[in-house]
Amino acid sequence: DKSKPVFVYCLSGKRSTAAATQLRSEGFTVYELDGGMLKWRAANLPEVKVESITTDKKEMTIDDFNALLNTDKTVLIDVFATWCGPCKILSLRLDEIANEDSSTVTVIRIDADENKMICDYLKVDALPTLFVYKNQKLKWRNVGLVDKAEILKHL
């Protein structure tokens, strides 16, 4: 029903452009989100999500997160999304680090879309976001794509 306000947001990429084009061609007004959905969520703006698939995945709690930090190893946290292009590029670099340095580094990947509570807790408002923890203390945080050498410098 075109008489009611509608807001549709596709997370990223060609589908977003195609969806916006289609909606505009059908007479809808389409607004671009400055900063994307993570900025929207970080500002605690309302969100209604329509799920076509129900999963039984449990969202990570803050206690779960803190338990991951309870190790002698350096912990590298990657907050990502499956739809995020830079996140996909970064994941290859993180896989290399995980394979090369597994005796001293634990790489943990957290899907932002499935773990909103953790994103709020960590104040994540853009992707990808990396965190390096040593002895349960945050030592480094980076927002955006970064090369492997820069990551290794902070490990």
Quick summary of this structure?
The protein is of the alpha+beta class and 155 residues long.
Description of the molecule:
With 155 residues, the chain is α+β, with helices and mostly antiparallel strands. Helices cover 36% and strands 17% of the residues. The protein contains six helices and four strands, in the order αααβαβαββα. It has a four-stranded mixed β-sheet with strand order 2-1-3-4, with helices on one face. Helix 4 (85-100) links the parallel strand 1 (74-80) and strand 2 (105-111). The longest helix is centred in the middle third of the chain and has 16 residues, at 85-100. The termini are far apart. Mean pLDDT is 83; it is low at 50-55.
Radius of gyration: 18 Å
| Proportion of residues in extended strands | 15-25%
User: How many H/I helical runs?
Assistant: 6
What's the overall average pLDDT, rounded?
A: 83
Task: Describe the protein's topology.
Layout (H helix, E strand, L loop, with lengths): L13 H12 L10 H7 L19 H7 L5 E7 L4 H16 L4 E7 L4 H7 L6 E6 L2 E7 L4 H7 L1
Parallel strand pairs: 1-2
Antiparallel strand pairs: 1-3, 3-4
Question: What are the main properties of this structure?
Answer:
36% helix; elongated; alpha+beta; four-stranded mixed β-sheet; 4 strands; 155 residues
